[in-house]
Amino acid sequence: MRMKHKLILPILLIAAACSTPEKPEKSTGLVTTSAMVVSAHPEASRVGKEILKKGGNAIDASIAVQFALAVVFPAAGNIGGGGFMVARFADGSVDALDYREKAPDAASPNMYIGETGEPMVEKSIRGHLACGVPGTVAGLADAHHKYGKLSWSELVQPAIDLAIKGVVLTEREASGLRNIQEDLKKYNTTIPDHLISENWKKGDILFQEELGHTLERIRDGGRAGFYDGKTAQDIVAEMKSGGGLITLQDLKNYTAVWRKPVRFDYKDYNVISMPPPSSGGVLLAQLLNAAADFPEKNWKPNGLESSHYIIEAERRAYADRAAYLGDPDFISIPVEQLIRKDYMKKRMADVDPEKATPSAEVGAGVIPAESDQTTHLSIVDAQGNAVAVTTTLNAGYGSMVVVAGSGFLLNDEMDDFSVKPGVPNIYGAIGGEANKIEPGKRMLSSMTPTIVEKDKKLFMVLGTPGGTTIITTVFQTILNVVEHGMSMQEAVTAKRFHMQWMPDVVGHEPGAFSASDSTMLLKKGHKLTLRKSIGRMDAIRILKDGRLEGGADPRGDDTADGY
Ligand code: DON
């Protein structure tokens, strides 16, 4: 059975305790003068701020925040998953790091197809067979090696302290843990006792001693503390006990990859985002290229005209995602053609202003011969270096498998492959040949860590979880700021909607469309469906006077902190 994609939920803007950030006005987020971290948890944002205050740069802070999130936000923060980092340095140079999980060597295209040809979808979502080879620790070690300033151990230590001294649960964390009790028992061969309780409540303290010791091995051994020795042996033993595929060799062979960011102009802005194996940067370019041709500024945000054209652009871009995008180390992807301005112009030429195009009639575009829990963090340091990171276990708490003896959750990223052509994954996305399972291949992602420049200067850092809705949430947030003049916080808080070609429906948050606009959208033939919540955007905008405004998503415990 397919699980419903649950996305979640009120804000705490916690002002920095020992500094004097400006008291936010009603419509803006926290404003600071020098540096800022916005992440999914107040403790993780605090850790990041402390690293920055100690003289660490944005890369250092992003590493410490990711390790802290692995402890305080186990639904998505991770060492057993993977992620993407996009960075823009104060000198204007940019870089992107891919530490996405890979399929184990023993994986095969039909591994989730039963004897009679039916897809065994649960196996790609929960349990040992759903796990890809984790990439997070390799990625963070590489990021530190190339750009870190503080010592590695200083960056890992705050997470160790949180794991061993314990973390005070927020209501959201407590209810997340209550909800997974049955699954933890069902999918683990050794019950993770420290997570088991039907009564988790706000204010309880979660101790994670084994995870703390795993983090100590990572602190002392770097990448080897995870991909070798006890941690690696525990992962392999866990796989053997539950019928998973990851071997010691898979772990030894895992490498993160530095990639060239996708870069494109949108009016006066230059956007720097994640290239494949994420579909994020390419689709964001397609969507902004389409939007550059609408009079978006003159339209009401989420109003009838704007929504109709945005939905039609999203329908077309996601059809291309299914056809063309996958791991660039395995398939050839026409990135340059897809992000060309005239390509999307042609794709949009048949949009009828009065009528929705049925998705079934929209195929992938013709390329000219030539020519669903995750978490995001945005950081700007006092020197003006910026880092956007989106990292994930895939579904909330990943595969639910906790590595016995090492105390951390493994991902269920294998579900991001196309399990069978035409069979949707948990986000309803379908795919084909380009994203089929192959040994050592990275599964296609929607994660879109993004940095925007204006007049060659840093302007915005943003990103969000949300499976396939990630790209449309990043797109809408950019439009909210650059076309509709919203503050960062307003743009993050604004209601969202999402279309992804198939299924042929527009998901929207309650109140995203006015009653009369929804009636008109229905009349044009759009199929609307209510979604409780879309995304958890964490973003920073650089104000004209150089100060930083945080936008922390009220849909979660997300918090801006800085000085
Ligand atoms: O890489 C991807 O696109 C997905 N695994 C992301 C999952 C996600 O955002 C879940 N969050 N709510």
- Strand percentage: 5-15%
**Distance between termini?**
47 Å
Secondary structure tally, helices:
18
- Shape assignment: globular
Cofactors, ions, other ligands: 6-diazenyl-5-OXO-L-norleucine
Strand order of the largest sheet: 1-18-17-13-12-9-8
The CATH architecture of the largest domain comes to 4-Layer Sandwich
Number of domains: 2
Under CATH, the homologous superfamily of the largest domain reads Gamma-glutamyltranspeptidase, small (S) subunit
Q: Nearest-angstrom radius of gyration?
A: 22 Å
Largest sheet: 7 strands, antiparallel
What proportion of the residues is helical, as a percent range?
25-40%
- Total strand count, please? 19
**CATH fold title of the largest domain:** Glutamine Phosphoribosylpyrophosphate, subunit 1, domain 1
Overall residue-averaged pLDDT value: 93
Q: Oligomerization state of this entry?
A: single chain
Structural class of the helix and strand makeup? alpha+beta
- Spans where pLDDT lies below 50 across 5 or more residues: 1-20
